Amino acid sequence: MHTNIVTRYGSHPDDVKNYDTQKLRDHFLIEDIFQDDKITGVYSMFDRYIVGGIAPVSKALELETVEQLKAEHFLDRRELGIINVGGSTKVTVDGTDYQLGTKEALYIGSGAKEVVFHPSTEGQAYLYFNSAPAHTSFPTKKVGLDDAEKVELGSMEESNHRVINKLIVNSVVESCQLQMGMTQLKPGSVWNTMPAHTHDRRMEAYFYFDLAETAAVCHYMGQPQETRHIWMKNHQAVLSPAWSIHSGSGTSNYTFIWGMAGENLDYGDMDKVAPTDLR
Questions:
Q1: Nearest to 80 by CA among 145, 2, 133
Q2: What DSSP assignment string belongs to 200-251?
Q3: Number of structural domains, the chain?
Q4: Which among 110, 130, 111 is positioned nearest to 176, based on CA atoms?
Q5: pLDDT in tens, 206-218
Q6: What pLDDT is recorded for position 34?
Q7: If you write DSSP's letter for every residue of 70-133 in order, what string do you get?
Q8: Looking at the DSSP assignment, which residues form a beta bridge with residue 61?
Q9: pLDDT at residue 98, as a whole number
Q10: Do 53 and 41 contact (CB within 8 A), yes or no?
Q11: Fewest CB within a 10 Å sphere: which of 56, 60, 72, 237?
Q12: Which segments of the chain have a pLDDT < 50?
């Protein structure tokens, strides 16, 4: 079996106030997300969200069911979003091939039986994925950067000039609750998602990439009046509970993928927190 999904249980915000650095990392950080010829990930009890990576190198990898799902197929009761952060590659869904270039996305609806991830012919394939429970089935759909809904925010003066690419959102792709997108920071900008926000109706996960080996991102989390931070490197992800802010600043510009699931599909449903109100 080439699939390894581990379970992480939810954490109460009052408990997190007492976590030291290592315990924060153990509960929320996902470090070794890409492993050669493996599918790896974390099944989080926050909205039963799965975050993981797929790295086919010498062979194609089929999406196997896992013990946590108690289902014949991985997608019997779930939907899946994939964003390619490596070389151009191919994904086969029930016999149909989808070619994914770098930074292109694929949404796969509930009910798909056979999903196969192929090695890249143009470098290393790195497929980052998020999965959420689904109550109905929507069609599989590829989304390129030209198809994304784009929003440009911030400024060089505030060090947060960035472009948000909404890839798997309800204005682009029909889904049950899964939403994913990619934010690219301009050179000279380092801050993401500032002002910070929370949304009690949804959890979220961030995945950071396009970082040099010598660079790092400080990811901020916790309740607005009781913040914490986790230092992260390239190709690492972090879980963000509904009660937590999610923001970051890097030693250089970078790209990150955000994914979320929960009660609704309203992208703008958030409770903003002014920088001067953070503690």
A1: 133
A2: TTEEEEEEEES--TT--EEEEEEETTEEEEEEE-TTEEEEE-TTS--EEEES
A3: 1
A4: 110
A5: 999 999 999 999 9
A6: 98
A7: -SSSTTSSEEEEEEE-SS-EEEEETTEEEEE-TT-EEEE-TT---EEE---SSS---EEEEEEE
A8: 117
A9: 98
A10: yes
A11: 72
A12: none
Cα distance from N-terminal residue to C-terminal residue, the chain: 45
- Which H helix or E strand runs over 27? helix 21-28
Decide if 77 contacts 102 (C-beta within 8 A): no
User: Which residue carries 């899964």 as its tokens?
Assistant: 178
Give the global pTM.
Answer: 0.97
From the annotation, which residues make up the binding site for Zn(2+)?
197, 199, 204, 246
Nearest C-alpha neighbor of 101 from the set 43, 144, 150, 44 = 144
Helix, strand, coil shares, percent, the chain, to 5: 5, 45, 50
| Alpha-carbon dihedral sign for residues 71, 174, 125, 218 | negative
| Cα–Cα distance, 233 to 29 (Å, whole number) | 11
pLDDT, tens digit (0-9, with 9 covering 90-100), for 149-208: 999 999 999 999 999 999 999 999 999 999 999 999 999 999 999 999 999 899 999 999
Q: From the annotation, which residues make up the binding site?
A: 197, 199, 204, 246
How big is the chain by its Cα radius of gyration, in Å?
18
**What's the number of CA atoms in the CB half-sphere (13 Å) around residue 128?**
29
| Environment class of 249 (CB within 10 Å of its CB; exposed 0-12, middle 13-18, buried 19+) | middle
* Domain membership of residue 77 as a residue range: 3-277
The answer to whether 217 and 211 have CB atoms below 8 angstroms apart is yes
Cβ neighbours for 261, distance < 8 A, ≥ 6 positions apart: 47, 49, 130, 132, 133, 177, 178, 179, 202, 203
Residue 154 belongs to domain with CATH number? 2.60.120.10
